[in-house]
Design brief:
Layout (H helix, E strand, L loop, with lengths): L17 E5 L3 H11 L4 E6 L2 H9 L3 E4 L9 H4 L5 E4 L9 H11 L6 E7 L10 E2 L10 H20 L3 E6 L1 E3 L5 H6 L5 E3 L7 E3 H13 L6 E4 L7 H12 L6 E3 L8 H8 L3 E2 L2 H7 L8 H17 L1
Parallel strand pairs: 1-2, 1-4, 2-3, 4-5, 5-7, 6-13, 7-11, 8-10, 9-12
Helix pairs in contact: 1-7, 4-5, 8-11
Length: 310
């Protein structure tokens, strides 16, 4: 895809704000590390007592939260919070953060920005065609259906009362410790080929780059696709990971001959589309650090090598 000729300048990033993350996973962790460099206060939720203790030892105001235990004294917990990251996986009822605490979140007096991490699975199958943020959503699997339901819940909150919502539809997330390199090392890699099937991915550093660009230039109500420039077949990504690691490349297995696929993996092959990412470049001034899987895997490999030598 062509680079944008006149991307918007990125405003100076705000300092000394406060982020609270409903769901403290891979993306929230990476974002928090970046924001800490700018003097931000970080808080968030987890369902695991051990992880809560670890986060608190790391200087993060962590709290236990799930559908059985709402946040106690939520006004105190969220006092002074200016930014929300919403990344709890949806259930059959949608987003539990919305279901349990939506009204309190909508009433936060200092809230400047809220970001919901959705997924490109909400688009469904487009037989390899390009899709953008204006493309109709038509999920054809459980993951996409639940993500879309959660999107609509948060959108209703935005429409009802000005909740400063931004929706980010993420392609396949990868980065150090969570990439094809790790799958190959674990001996779990299979090179399944389905004619014409491709997918996009997005490196964790580029996710953080987009989120911080949006925080610096809020535009409530907007939806952004987060994806690289080069959709590719999954078997090509596995092949490149094997080559980086100096390991044998598994033989290709035709999709129709695969003996078993977990439901979540099979649903992955039911969708086939190419994700346009022009909007993050034009509206947020983002230039991807890793525009394709080769650049991203090279960076993951280099980061692991540096860690081993440290």
């Amino acid at each position: 895809m062509d680079e944008d000729k006149n991307p918007q300048p990125v405003p100076e990033f705000p300092r000394n704000k406060s982020l609270f993350c409903f769901g403290f996973g891979y993306t929230a962790t990476a974002l928090s590390l970046k924001l800490a460099e700018h003097g931000w206060t970080i808080g968030g939720t987890t369902t695991d007592q051990e992880k809560r203790s670890f986060l608190r030892q790391s200087g993060i105001n962590a709290y236990l939260f799930d559908k059985t235990q709402p946040l106690i004294a939520i006004d105190r917990v969220l006092d002074g919070v200016t930014h929300l990251l919403l990344s709890v996986p949806p259930s059959e009822h949608g987003d539990i953060s919305y279901e349990i605490h939506g009204r309190e979140l909508a009433a936060m007096p200092n809230l400047e920005w809220a970001g919901y991490l959705s997924a490109t699975s909400v688009y469904g199958n487009y037989d390899g065609k390009w899709v953008d943020e204006e493309t109709p959503t038509s999920p054809n699997n459980r993951r996409g259906t639940l993500r879309l339901k959660a999107e609509k819940q948060w959108t209703n909150l935005y429409l009802e009362g000005g909740f400063p919502l931004h929706i980010f539809r993420l392609a396949g997330i990868y980065g150090p410790g969570r990439s094809a390199l790790d799958v190959v090392r674990a001996g779990k890699a299979r090179r399944i080929v389905k004619e014409g099937h491709v997918f996009n991915r997005i490196h964790i550093d580029d996710i953080v780059q987009v989120l911080t660009a949006s925080m610096a230039n809020p535009s409530p109500g907007e939806i952004y696709n987060l994806a690289d420039d080069a959709p590719e077949a999954s078997h090509a990504v596995i092949k490149y990971a094997c080559e980086l690691l100096g390991l044998d490349v598994p033989e290709l297995i035709p999709y129709d001959e695969v003996d078993y696929l977990a439901p979540i993996v099979r649903s992955f092959y039911q969708d086939n589309k190419r994700i346009k990412n022009d909007k993050i470049k034009q509206d947020l001034g983002v230039k991807l650090l890793y525009p394709d899987y080769r650049a991203g895997l090279n960076a993951c490999f280099a980061a692991e090598d540096e860690f081993q030598q440290a």
